[in-house]
Amino acid sequence: MNEFKPDASRIDTVSASLELPGQECYAAYVGLDVHKETIAVALAEPGRQEPRSEGEIANRPKSIEKLVRRLSERFGGGVLQFVYEAGPCGYGLYHQLAGTGHICEVVAPSRIPKAAAERIKTDRRDALKLARLARSGDLTPVWVPGPEQEAMRDLTRARGDMKSQERKARQQLSAFVLRHGHAWPAGKKRWTQAHYTWLESLKFAHDWQQVVLQEYVDAVKAATQRVADLRAQMERALAQWSLAPVVEALVALRGVDTLAAMVLLAELGDISRFDSPRQLMAFLGLVPSEHSSGGRRRQGGITLTSNGHARRMLVESAWSYRFPARQTKHLKRKAAPASEAAKGIAWQAQKRLCGRYRDLIQAGKNSKLVCVAIARELAGFIWAIVREEMPRVRGAANAG
Fold it and tell me: Cα–Cα distances in Å, from 60 out to 71, 86, 195, 326, 382?
């Protein structure tokens, strides 16, 4: 993620590695307001004239192909820059436009400048605004995953969705039995075979309540099975994933198992694209918000921007650093496939983060806030391991 410099001789975008002499290299800037059925199109030519609307087209591959061909002919085959907001329609449009040889960027909706007095919002106005801001360079592109990366992200998110459904089903079953005066002993483990046997042995006053109980139990078992099936599918997919060696390296970290490493890399992709760990921490929304003016500096809670899936996984992993740093048999066993460099970084992380957790707790900080602070620093060690491993992965891919 290169920082913008006013005196730079070229502009690098996330979506393309094409080196072009400057903004004027684009023949035109095309803003697209994308919806399920339609796409509003607007065009801004280089210069200071106002962008103009090109109407609407159907959100279909053939219609998009016709639009690109028509605009390309109008501007003599020059390179066009297309921009649209990230949203529920995914990246299919991006891949189609990028495949035509033109530049396409998917921009972050939350980073689009908005005037305070702006009160009218239509598809036409949104497309015009995107075209104008693309020409001025005021849009922030997001990283677009490739087909393999997107498929792995879908798999890990599906497993997370099934886990949420399992938690909900368990909560509903527990609430039902508690409401009727039945409680599992506090010190005993739940959701084991013994627990299910106890649940199914409960007696209620009416027959239909027995039916309700069994339906709740069956729902919990079905949800648990779906989670297990998707976990098994993730393990099978890992062997075919190009980032599998990086997953093995990240597992050397304390608190990071195969599942956590897969979720992080599926959500973030090649983390080495960040120039520094601070950029990664800011991208994950783990840095404090700030409102400072004059001589007054005020910091608030973390920004919570960008990818919540990866941030949640990091916070969960950070809890394991509340224990003293040590090399247990379990940690050595799970770190065995990792490189020596990754193992060294993981041990440095243990010493740093375990001591940091202890110091912050002794200073009287809230344990949840401390865990978030540890997660922020853990992101830096993850960045270091990925930067160490990615050259080997790229070398293996080029050799293959």
Answer: 17, 17, 52, 57, 40
H or E stretch at 196: helix 193-200
Amino acid letter for position 373 = A
Q: Which of 84, 86, 71, 108 is nearest to 32 (CA)?
A: 84
Q: Where are the alpha helices (DSSP H) in 273-328?
A: 277-283, 308-318
| Lookup result for tokens 């409680």 | 183
Q: What is the H or E stretch that residue 302 is in?
A: strand 299-302
Using the 8-state DSSP alphabet, how is residue 295 labeled?
T
Per residue in 96-148, pLDDT tens?
Answer: 999 999 999 999 998 899 888 888 999 999 999 999 999 999 999 999 999 99
Q: Please choose, from the candidates 30, 34, 76, the residue with its C-alpha nearest in 3D space to the C-alpha of residue 54.
A: 30
Of 46, 11, 134, 34, the residue nearest 89 (C-alpha) = 34
Tell me: the pLDDT tens digits for 167-182? 999 999 999 999 999 9
Which region, left, alpha or beta, applies to residue 76 given φ > 0 means left and ψ of -120 to 50 means alpha? left
DSSP code at position 13: B
Residue 105: closest CA among 177, 217, 183, 26: 26
